[in-house]
From TrEMBL:
It comes from Desulfocurvibacter africanus subsp. africanus str. Walvis Bay. Residues 83-135 form a coiled coil. GO terms for cellular component: bacterial-type flagellum; plasma membrane. The lineage of its organism: Bacteria, Pseudomonadati, Thermodesulfobacteriota, Desulfovibrionia, Desulfovibrionales. One of its GO terms (biological process) is bacterial-type flagellum organization. It comes from the Bacteria. Keywords: Bacterial flagellum biogenesis, Bacterial flagellum protein export, Cell membrane, Cell projection, Chemotaxis, Cilium, Coiled coil, Flagellum, Membrane, Protein transport, Transport. It is found in: Cell membrane. Belongs to the FliJ family. This is Flagellar FliJ protein. InterPro entries: Flag_assembly_chemotaxis_eff, Flagell_FliJ. It is a peripheral membrane protein.
């Protein structure tokens, strides 16, 4: 009886490992993009909160002098400009985050495709092994039956 290997080697194992590594790298890039997006969103919220507090404080006053109005107007324009820039940066980071998510999805699909191929190959190998084993049993049973004396 020939000794058959118990498990077949997957020829594309190195490619599968590479795809797993690329997926992990994409996940790290996505995590960094999420962190930058979250930080920028917090920064933008902080700018808006400061403006809202300054506005509430300014409008709670009873009287305004012309320099107060000029100063408020200058501050408000600068704060609005900063908010606009921060919002634009947030939108850019949102696009980067979306691209990173799509990259993770694409790399996961690549990996899953090879894993499915590996599973199918293993199932086919196991089935071939069972068939070969069954054939051996059938042959030995036939030989035993033929050599029995009646």
């Amino acid at each position: 009886m020939p000794c058959m290997p118990t498990q077949q080697h997957f020829k594309l194992e190195k490619v599968l490992d590479f795809r797993r590594q690329r997926e992990e790298q994409a996940m790290l890039v996505m995590a960094e993009a999420q962190r930058r997006y979250r930080d920028q969103a917090e920064f933008l919220d902080g700018l808006k909160s400061r403006l809202a507090r300054a506005e509430a404080e300014f409008f709670s006053r009873k009287a305004y002098t012309p320099p107060d109005l000029w100063l408020w107007n200058t501050y408000k324009k600068a704060a609005d400009f900063d908010i606009k820039l921060a919002d634009a940066a947030l939108q850019r980071l949102a696009k980067e985050l979306q691209r990173a998510r799509l990259e993770v999805i694409a790399r996961a699909k690549d990996r899953k495709l090879l894993e499915k191929l590996k599973e199918n190959q293993a199932k086919r190998y196991e089935q071939e092994e069972r068939l070969a084993e069954q054939k051996e049993f059938d042959e030995s049973s036939t030989l035993r039956f033929k050599h029995q004396d009646f």
